[in-house]
Amino acid sequence: MKHHIRCLLGIPCLAIALPAFAASPDDAAGKVILDARYRYEQMEQDNALDTAKAHTLRTRIGYRTPRWHGLSGLLEIDDVRHLGTERFNDTRNGRGRYSTVGDPEGTEVNQALLRYTAGWGNVQVGRQRINLSNQRFVGGVGWRQNEQTYDGAMIELTPAPAWKLTYAYLDNINSVFGPDDTRPISRTAPADIEGHSHLLQAQYAFSPHLTAIGYHYRLGLDNLAVATGAPLGTLSSRTTGLRLQGKAGAFSYVLEHARQRELDGNPWQLDGRYWLAEGGYRWQAIQWKAGYEVLGAGRGGAGNQAFQTPLATKHAFQGWADQFLTTPADGLRDAYAGVVLPLAGGEWQAWYHDFRSDRGGHRFGRELDLSWRHAIPGVKGLDGLLKLASYRSADGARTVDTDKFWVQVQYSY
Question: CB-based contacts of 241: which residues, under 8 Å, 6+ apart?
Fold first, then answer.
C-alpha cells in the first residue's frame, strides 16, 4: 500500500510543471501558500498529571498551479516545531508525567494532488484535505497543528444546480499524531491509519428552507482500536444517515439521524444510533444556537460498542476541553447552547454544554467555552485568538475537572 501512496503523491509533482509548457484561455492564477501559526496551550487536570504548557509553531508552505485545460496541481508541506522546554506530553516525546497536548514535532507532505475541473464537477487524486458536510464524521481536524489528510481519490459531481454528489476512496489516513510513530505503534493513535475506506454523500437543495444530505461511510480502519485493550479493527464501521437543514428568515435548523454497524473485519458487532436536533436564530450580527446531540451506547456487552466518529474534526463538537474524543461505552448525550457576536472589533463566542450518558442517565459534567478572535492591525492576514475551556466533572470515576487555555497568532498569505 505504501508503494501505491508514493505513486499517487508523484503524480501531482509532475502536474505542477504542466502550466509552464503551454497556456490556454481557461487559465486560473496560481497561488503561493504561506501560513505560520504559533500557539501556546495550557492544560490543567484534577489528577496526578503535571500541568501541560506547550509552545508550538506550525509552518506551512506550498503552491497551487494555474489551471491548464482543467488540470491543476497542489503541493503543500507542513512543519511542526516545539519552542522551548517540552513541558507536555505530545504522545510521542515520552513526557508521560504531563497532560497531553497532541502536537508531535515533524515535517510532512500535507497535501500533494492532481485536480481536474470541468463543468460537471471535479476529480482529485493524491494526498488531500477532505471535509464532508459539517465535519462531524469526516474532516481535517484543522485545530491541531498537524492536519489530518487522506491518501486516495475523490470525485464531486454537480449534475444539476440543486445536486451535489461526492465519492471518495481512501487507502491511508495521515492522522494528527504523525508523521512518525512510536515503538511499539500506538493502537489508538497511529501516525497512519491503514485500510480501505469508501465515502459516499448525496446532497439535494429543495429550497433555501430545506437541504437534504444522505451519506454512507464504510471505514476500514485495520490498525486502529477503540481502546488500548480492544482488538484492532474495532473502529471499522459502516454508517448510514440523513441530515436535513435549512433556514426560514432569521431561524435555522438541523435534524439528523444515523445508524452505525460493524464492517467486515471488525471482531465486534455494532449497532449504534446518532441523533441531532439543533435550532438557531440570527438577530443582526448576533447568532444564537441550541441543540441536543446523542451518540448512542449501542449493543452493550464487553468492550466499548458505542457510536464513534474516528475521522471527525472532534474539537468542534462536544466542548473544546476534548473530554469525549472517544464516545464512552455508555454513550453520550450533549445538551448545548451558545452565542456568536461581534465584540471590540473581533468575534466573541460563548458555549455551554451539559453531558450525560445515553445508557443509565449518568451525569458526566458540564463545560463552559469562551473565545475571542481579532485581526491584528497593520499586517494583512495576521490575526490573534484567545480561547478558554473549563470542564467540571460530576462523576470523578469517569472524568476529571479540566481547564484549557490558548493564545494563538496566525499569519496566512
Answer: 214, 215, 256, 257, 258, 259, 274
